[in-house]
Amino acid sequence: MRLPVARGPASAMLVEALSGVPARTTFDVTELWDADRSDDGGRASGTNADADPIRDEDLQLFLFTCYELHYRGFDGVDERWEWDPSLLAVRAVAEQRFESALRRLVGPLAAVEPDDVPRALTSLVADDDGPSLATELHRRGDLARFREFVTQRSVYHLKEADPHTWGIPRLGGETKAALVEIQMDEYGRGRLSRMHAELFRDTMRWLGLDSDYGAYVDAVPAVTLAANNLISLFGLHRRWRGALLGHLAAFEMTSSLPNRRYGDALRRLGGTPGATRFYDEHVEADAVHEQIAAYDLCGSFALTEPARASDVLFGAACCLALDRLVAEHVLSSWAAERSSLRLPLALGH
């Protein structure tokens, strides 16, 4: 993956630094964010003081670039940057701002008893009344908008399951077994042609899009990066293992019906069986995963680690809230007859 184009002073400093050698660059936190104000809206130097951290293009690209060092990295970037102490220190300040924004977004959540976590998850998902991209594309979507939608989703789906897999070594017993069961399906049970990321590539190719990993990072807005950064934030920090499981549960519990609509919409637009297979696969798989995620995964975790039961609901609430923000951004852009992307959509070769 190539380094992204900077969107502000922090991401510009980071992109420039990553072109050099670790240990020869020291990041001064005060040059990027005011750490003393991070809990009440401290802003990156030189950025809009009224910016919401979740919609802050500079902050979200900074975090995304930091996190990507833990996945496949960047062309020409020294892999030792992944654990560079000075970079991790400033990343922690950016994460603090992001976490504070997330807490403000979802608000206080009701206390939950460990044995009531599955029911609470079900209620949380049922109460979500955010706008539906699936309904819009199913009813009125054309190929141009479906391409745009797939471009927005490509940042996650081309590495689908990877962020949640960070949780496997941090769990044990029934909880670990349940997560492995879900992830095995995501990875096609060891068959490349059935891996969900590969199925999504087939969809992208049929639509004429560039299916290379990370091809459209520069094109998507901050809110889309934030939805992706959320999973990496939870996955890369052991303290957020409960939130990671809650995120996955919400993801699985809200997937089956929308994917049926996406598949039907693409068929209406002439999509071949190969092009729609990604969505059709999720209709069946996620209907099964829904119960596993709520009961075997999150239910067992809450009973094993009761002090972290509330983290499960926080992770689920964050998932639903950021998905809602992405949908609102896309739908409001379309209602105004403009693209939801930052750059004109470039098709593949």
Task: Give a written overview of the molecule.
By secondary structure, the chain is mostly helical. The chain has 2 domains: 9-106, no CATH class; 114-335, Heme oxygenase-like (Heme Oxygenase, Chain A). The chain has 15 helices and no strands. Helix 3 (57-68) crosses helix 11. It is globular, with a radius of gyration of 20 Å. The relative contact order is 0.14.
Task: Name some characteristics of this structure.
Heme Oxygenase, Chain A, 15 helices, 0% strand, 349 residues, 60% helix, 2 domains, globular
Mean pLDDT: 91
Structural class determined from secondary elements: mainly alpha
CATH classification class of the largest domain: Mainly Alpha
Strand content: under 5%
User: Helicity range of the residues?
Assistant: 55-70%
Largest sheet: none
First-last Cα distance: 17 Å
SSE string, helices as H and strands as E: HHHHHHHHHHHHHHH
Name given to the CATH architecture of the largest domain: Up-down Bundle
CATH superfamily of the largest domain: Heme oxygenase-like
Low-pLDDT sequence parts: 35-49
Tell me how many strands there are.
0
Shape: globular
Radius of gyration: 20 Å
| Number of structurally distinct domains | 2
By DSSP (H or I, 4+ residues per run), the number of helices equals 15
Write the CATH fold name of the largest domain: Heme Oxygenase, Chain A
In short:
The chain has 349 residues and is mainly α.
Describe the protein's topology.
Layout: H1 9-18, H2 29-32, H3 57-68, H4 85-106, H5 117-127, H6 133-140, H7 143-157, H8 162-165, H9 173-186, H10 196-206, H11 222-236, H12 241-253, H13 256-268, H14 273-304, H15 309-335
Helix pairs in contact: 1-3, 3-4, 3-11, 4-15, 5-14, 5-15, 6-13, 7-10, 9-14, 10-14, 11-15, 12-14, 12-15, 13-14
